[in-house]
Amino acid sequence: MRPALLALAAAGALLGAPAAAHGADAVPGEVVVATEGHATAAAAGGPQFHTVRTTDVQGTIRRLRRQDGVRYAVRNVKARAAAFMPDDVWQGHPWPTIQWNFAGPFGVNAPAAWEHLIAAGRPGGAGVVVAVLDTGVAYRQRGEYLQSPDLDPAQFVAGYDFVDGDPYANDANGHGTHVASTIGEQTNNGTGLTGLAYGTKLMPVRVLDDRGEGDAATIAKGVRYAARRGAQVINLSLEFSADVRPRDIPQLLDAIDYAHGRGAVIVGASGNEADAVAYPARAAPVISVGSTTEHGCLSDFSNRGFGLDLVAPGGGPDELLAQPECRPRGRRGQNIAQITLVGKERRSFGIPGNYKGTSMAVPHVSAAAALVIASGVLGERPSPVAVERRLETTARDLGPTGRDRHYGAGLLDAGRATDPAVPVTP
Fold first, then answer.
1. 255-299 confidence digits (pLDDT tens)
2. Active-site residue among 88, 134, 309, 318?
3. Cα(264)–Cα(415) distance, integer angstroms
4. Residues 172, 174, 179, 185: what is their CA dihedral angle, to the nearest 10 degrees?
5. Which end of the chain, N or C, is less surrounded by CB atoms within 10 Å?
6. Are strands 50-53 and 70-77 parallel, antiparallel or unpaired?
7. Is 359 designated active site?
């Protein structure tokens, strides 16, 4: 039977010519054929089918299906990896070679998350508003202020500068731009790096000055502003010193309660002193985030202990912990790469190699929260508590089994958090 089938296929025309697409993508000019005789061969471990080449795929399929003994004749349809892999390149280097934090062995499983959001019709978390309370963002050219080459002004909603008291939350430091880029840098545009929640709307709110410093009253105003204007996620890549207690920042804690009550997911940095979790991250409504290294170890600077909820990539050296991933005396892992302001005068853009810290870990969690909200896995309008629980229950366990003082609930896994096949924990 097989020689006859091959002859019939070859009779279509010259092999290798393109065939018209019909529905799903398929290998051009190929038909997969199986006959009744192949069933016996399959039982003996032999081939179950073979492919034939033709320039008339549909005509060949129709003719084969009319033949006696043909079990099936179909196009050789293509599958693709269950992950969206953007085409972004920076100076000849594809983004995965730079952004280990998104796609490396101890990254946050970004490609799977992107695929889930595309399948949900909300690519990159489209429609969710994320407020970045920081040193501002290089989101628009204005006077001496620059616009990042991989941030689109159209992806920003109105923000405010609470340091200078005007509507222009521009950045002259670079910290806020780095954070915002981890959340929402343009993705799959053939240039630069990628943003975890690249489809979200970003709200720039400047609460830290050009030295990266700010006071509790200013930050509280920024939190209330973001909440009143519909931010669904509020990113706080900032910390107070370890000796600051709730009685010292009542205005900020009240603002956080207000924002949480309005449905905002609030994410904060655990701190960088290898000490107890700092405020405002330690406040109950805030998802507190520690930092991990490229090796999957706790960063040696990351605060830990009571109140730590999750960890995410923040770079830096490994802590001295008794787990195989930790190599404090070995090769140091990479820090967190994003396009931001560089140079002494901050008058150009590049990818600096010195950005590490829980400030860098926080935007991974903020972005993942936005993706969870957009994905619909928790329903149309999930509460901040539901979003936090989803992120924690889908996290990757590190260190001792279960929740622990170094890693909280574990390493953020944006892919699992947005996967509709992963059951929602009550």
1. 999 999 999 999 999 999 999 999 999 999 999 999 999 999 999
2. 134
3. 22
4. 90
5. C
6. unpaired
7. yes
Kindly state the helix (H) or strand (E) to which residue 217 belongs, with its residue range: helix 216-228
* Residue 364 known to be catalytic: no
pLDDT single digits (tens) 201-260: 999 999 999 999 999 999 999 999 999 999 999 999 999 999 999 999 999 999 999 999
pTM value is: 0.83
- To the query of whether residue 175 is one of the catalytic residues in this protein, the response is yes
Any idea what the Cα angle at residue 370 is, between residues 367 and 371, rounded to 5°?
90
Count CA atoms closer than 13 A to 53's CA, side-chain side.
Answer: 6
Say which residues have a Cβ less than 8 Å from residue 62's Cβ, sequence separation at least 6.
Answer: none
Q: In 120-200, where does DSSP find H-type helix?
A: 175-184
Q: Which domains does the chain have, with CATH numbers?
A: 2-77 (no CATH), 89-417 (3.40.50.200)
How many residues does the structure list for the chain?
426
| Selected catalytic residue, list 38, 148, 150, 175 | 175
The active-site residue, picked from 359, 406, 413, 419, is: 359
CA distance 149 to 138: 9
